[in-house]
Design goal:
178 residues, mainly alpha
């Protein structure tokens, strides 16, 4: 359910694009992000750092798109977000000796330390790859293709990556835990 809630602004962006174009979609994406965070705050829920970061990036890049009437900025938004995630995971690991992936998943699965390091690194590489894929599609193909990739392609890539991780990590899951 949380994934659907996180997916809300992207879905509304896609629908708005199909009916009103990139500038309407950008406005809707910004508004949906504010509504999403407002909803959590009204319900007394904690807003993830990633959600605040995503809001800031869509306001900056979406705002530049609307202000300058140039879709280039909104096309950069996913890449900037992916690369900030990769940078955050890498900096946390290298400079602060904190594995964010382990912090997030450590209670659900027990892994040897080298596997946690590899898992963290795999997410770093995945986010870098996602950013590069977004740039490739955004600046090689037309806007329609990019919007479809943003919804379907990046979602499929994430799904495949998570499934592949599950397969690799499955050998570390104790039958008694599951």
């Amino acid at each position: 359910m949380k994934y659907l809630f996180d997916f809300f602004p992207i879905l509304l962006f896609f629908i708005a694009y199909k009916f009103g174009g990139i500038y309407v979609a950008t406005s809707v994406g910004i508004a949906a992000s504010f509504v999403q965070i407002g909803w959590l705050l009204l319900r007394g829920k904690k807003v993830d750092t990633m959600m605040w970061l995503s809001l800031a990036i869509i306001v900056v890049f979406g705002g530049a798109t609307l202000l300058l009437h140039d879709e280039t900025f909104i096309k950069w938004k996913p890449t900037v977000l992916y690369w900030l995630f990769a940078l955050g995971l890498l900096v946390s690991s290298v400079f602060f000796k904190k594995n964010v992936i382990r912090t997030m998943m450590g209670e659900q699965i027990k892994l040897p330390e080298p596997i946690w390091r590899n898992l963290n690194l795999s997410w770093v590489l995945f986010f870098i790859t996602m950013g590069l894929a977004n740039l490739y599609v955004a600046f090689t193909f037309n806007t329609d293709t990019w919007v479809n990739f943003k919804l379907f392609g990046s979602t499929a890539m994430m799904f495949i990556f998570i499934i592949a991780q599950g397969v690799v990590l499955n050998k570390y899951v104790d039958d008694k835990e599951s």
